[in-house]
Amino acid sequence: MNVVREWAELMEQCKIGDAPVAMTEYQGTKQLADLGFPVVEGYLATTEDEAVQYSRQIGYPVVMKIMSPQILHKSDVGGVVLGIQNDSDAKDTFGLLLRNARQYNSAAIIHGVLVQKMQPKGLELIVGVNRDPVFGHMAFVGAGGTTVELLKDFSMRLLPINEVEAGSMLQQMKIYPLLSGYRGANPLDEASVIQLLMKLNTLCSELPQIKEVDLNPVFVYEHGIAISDVRILLEKSRQNTPANRIKQRYLDKMFNPKSIAVIGASSNVKKNGGRLFHYIVKHGYKGKLYPVNPGAEEILGYPCFPSLEAIPETIDLACIIVRAEQTPEVLESCIRKGIKAAIIYSSGFAEIGWEGQLLQQKITEIADRGGISLCGPNSIGIASPILNTYTAFGMALQTDHPISGPIGFVSQSGAMGSALLSRAWEQGVGFSRWISVGNEADMAIPDFIKFLVDDPETKVITAFIEGIKDGSAFIDAAEAARQARKPLVLYKTGISEVGQRAVQSHTGALAGNDQAYQCVFAKVGAIRVENVSELIDVSRGFMMPVLPKGNRIGVVTASGGACSVIADGCSAIGLNVPQLSTGTQQVIAECIPPFGAVQNPVDVTAELLSKPDMFKRVLQAVVADPNVDALLIMLTTSADPVASVVARAIVEVRDQADKPILVGRLGADFLAPQALQYFREHQVPVFPTPDRVVKVMKYLVEFGMHQYGKEEILINLINK
Amino acid sequence: MNVVREWAELMEQCKIGDAPVAMTEYQGTKQLADLGFPVVEGYLATTEDEAVQYSRQIGYPVVMKIMSPQILHKSDVGGVVLGIQNDSDAKDTFGLLLRNARQYNSAAIIHGVLVQKMQPKGLELIVGVNRDPVFGHMAFVGAGGTTVELLKDFSMRLLPINEVEAGSMLQQMKIYPLLSGYRGANPLDEASVIQLLMKLNTLCSELPQIKEVDLNPVFVYEHGIAISDVRILLEKSRQNTPANRIKQRYLDKMFNPKSIAVIGASSNVKKNGGRLFHYIVKHGYKGKLYPVNPGAEEILGYPCFPSLEAIPETIDLACIIVRAEQTPEVLESCIRKGIKAAIIYSSGFAEIGWEGQLLQQKITEIADRGGISLCGPNSIGIASPILNTYTAFGMALQTDHPISGPIGFVSQSGAMGSALLSRAWEQGVGFSRWISVGNEADMAIPDFIKFLVDDPETKVITAFIEGIKDGSAFIDAAEAARQARKPLVLYKTGISEVGQRAVQSHTGALAGNDQAYQCVFAKVGAIRVENVSELIDVSRGFMMPVLPKGNRIGVVTASGGACSVIADGCSAIGLNVPQLSTGTQQVIAECIPPFGAVQNPVDVTAELLSKPDMFKRVLQAVVADPNVDALLIMLTTSADPVASVVARAIVEVRDQADKPILVGRLGADFLAPQALQYFREHQVPVFPTPDRVVKVMKYLVEFGMHQYGKEEILINLINK
Question: Which residue windows are coiled coil (chains A, B) (predicted)?
């Protein structure tokens, strides 16, 4: 389809400026008809005679609609008449429509009256595209007609899509059965709806100016479809790729610095500069460390320098923690000193309003000019537990026992990030890298995600996100994570209107439409969690060496109540608790007392916990069952020493299994400290509530399904 | 409306036995017409001539439908013809319908052809009633027509209802705007739909035999409604009130026993009987204690008796922990000894199948005969921390530091109940009473709830529920809780089909339809939580001395990220984060730095936490704001000593406020042990994650709205 030239002319006609321009329905219909879209036959009549002539040409009955750029909701002002049967009615209707239009708005520009073939009733869909300011074109399809907003039954996808994806968009609608053949009715023409989506796909790839296409209703028949109403909005497409994306990055100097200068270091730990320097020293940084402060001789035994230039050696990383207005001069001295990586902790930039915004632009320009990779301003810093390098001043670093591990974490909220870091440590969970991005004057979330993708110390990437500025950079980074088979686990805030207000008052980030984010995350296979604390839970889950290959969960508990709770949880969330094979049931029946349950969910009864060999046999049988993709064990109140015996049995089964095993334990930690210690030593994450272990299993399955490309299971999971 | 006689005749006709009996549409239509329901005019034609005659009488166009008890889905077999215009068509259609019916099922009994007035299109609703086997009649109303099952847009209520409740049923539908006047359209006749629900309400109150009434579609017009299709199912109503409901109860002897005999006590703590006796002693029971075991001289220093009768004193409570087959004889000896309260811990009853079921019936009969109040069998026991009386053997009792408090807890799962008890203690939360109901051979959940309602030690009642056997007893107990203004907080499992399987294989309880439970909980103002661990969270929340009077939440945090997360959480759950009044905003602006947020959610910034007076002023201003019903404070990583200063400020504000204040804190406990200790000492529950504190606030508001009768806010909360 070669459309660019024709549409370009139309856009010339429309005199497109910065504001979006709406086409009239007739213009839109005509354009789409020319491009081969199955629009209802129709012509623009400008006189009574033309109205009659077109009506005859089309064949009665016909529909007539007023065409005016000033009248968008035609039905509401008597601008639409259906079922016109003959010449005389056609003539009268033409006059009536004009009178109604003038009465509604005497200044309205009337392009004429659209005469259309009267369509038989079919299933009504709404089909269209919408350009998100951050991520670009999204296609959508849903239950159409006048109740679109009430029922909210629709699915959306980031473009481009292929035919399989278009097909699964249809399947995601609640009313999909009406399309595929409901209650013995003949199936409707799904293929034509898919083709319509593909046509929109092509159109958007060639015409970035498309802001909105709304086709509503699209009538779907057993054979064919008919687009009965067309609404098109055009708008200049904005180039939103920031210049800094092509900057050379000095990530090694930022994350693995051999030498650090702290500009604004202090010996007063009540000051941020004092806390920062204290944490670097306290947590055992191994490289060379230079405090810079013209007012001090030494800090914590380190000789202090009056300026960067006074330091006799080269510096990998500048940690800048001075007053906001001093930061430009400090950055200039970084350039003079040849420093290529800096973190600015200072606040007083875009987050405080327009003066701060100007200052932020200034430091971005300086960093660009000097080729400096910059994190911040208004950052809490970067921590690399894996290297004992803590260039951060978050309160979490008060701990005497930081833990390193395989999780890389990047946060747009310093406070939430720091709190999560401390909670992770509390649970014995370690991070490889921890990054507070601050205001993202230079480096932003996508840059850090890319770094974590390449970072060999990081196996799981997690992020707390308020808003993405550069959609395509984010998509690139997420795709890189997917290629590297590193799970990308995200919490995204700013969903509610009030939440967006909060985000905007705090950072410069644009909190985009949540539905768009949802599409993008689905497209790139990112795992979106619902609660911040799940960032830690899920990351723990991903320490499992294997992924589930499907959503069929074997459940083993020692209590009927736990069976029921886990079964409810699985079902609510789209996980399947299948029947076990006969062989497995036989093995279980041989092991457990008669008042247990041999069916999935299996209740081995509390009695069996003190018979570890039997318990192990049950676990082995369930995990090996061909009907099962993963094993979930829910423990209740077992106490040491029985609990430790149980823990050993679970670890032994886990070591031999080629399917993931997750463990929940509702009983308090104080009942089984030895068992919990054993689990920790053997890298078995234990989740304290049924809902949390089920949720983590869902996310593991979701990631597995992305990896193994099982679309149909994903739809079920994401819809729940 | 006096209908009993007429319907009784019809039921005689229908020869109602134990199985449900369906009326044909004509029978149903006629009955409802006689009772004044606005059914579409229609007559049963048994010949061609009658078909023509009725068609003329009604006036063309008409609709014809085949009437046969064997043909339920008439449309699917060519049993319905619409829009018949004249005598000749009416005659032909009559023949056609008969032929189609015979072709579909040659043995079908044909009652005739229903000739109905052809109705103009209106909004299609489904309206009806359904009798739940446990709770009785439920009314429902929803989006009607053929897509009922796909859209699942309906609301249900337990009968009886009044007109206000009927009205709010309508408002709960997503498509309600179509009824109330959508996009400038005239409103439809809501009042007639409400009247229809009220007619069904009356009908069911007079005719318990009604099993199902399905009116679908009911056309709703601007003036009037028309019931176009009627489906009625009748069934004998079962009397499901167990005899034991009229037994005299000896709750004081069960819960506050002055003397206890433990039949089956042992000095081996690996045995259940050993553990039970050990826990009674260990946790300091103050009354007289008698181990009964013919094979022992003494246990833990208590002289042992060979039988109950050998004990020289009267006994309040018998704790029976012997093999299942010995329990009848032990109960008989209880009768001989004049004991009126017993707990049977032994398993091997209804939960193991039909033999156990028989044994369970036997002990129920003995208990009834002896007038014994019985808890169990298969119970883990009863604990009264408030009295240091622990007649239970759950592993939670391993603790050396049990805590008492205002929460009464009753559980149908011993294992889950015991696990939750231990988790509560871990969080510093105490119980007044803890009850494992076991198989409920005699006393059941409603009996225990009633006890907790009357128990002065209990302020909040919580329950883990698998299934209720006696619906009206439950409703009575819950109503009593509401009257006493004690929150009833429930977790109900057995929602999923698999979950129901698990429940049924474990206990004898009937896991009823979840939707029915939902209706009942809403009706009695019980708070249903989604996750088991929320039972503890919410109960902690209810320790607040005051309830919110609305759903408008003031939010104060020290981080923009936290503001956004809380705002998202509130909005997802139906809580409102309103604009603060101008005066409040001015006070906040005077206190906080320029990069904070004076709007709700308020970001005071981390800086303010070290200025406790300023922080207090902000809290006081927000909690006093007339736009706000409750205050939610979300802390992040503040560490001692700052965290302690913050804690003191919060407690001071709480002490003077007449609105509830909840606190969340995402940062790890190890950062602020002193602050957390201070909160605990001052009864301020602190929740570790944003989602948990928001959830608890939602439940507080829900209970407040039930108490204050604010239906419109409740609808919003329950729909979310």
Answer: none
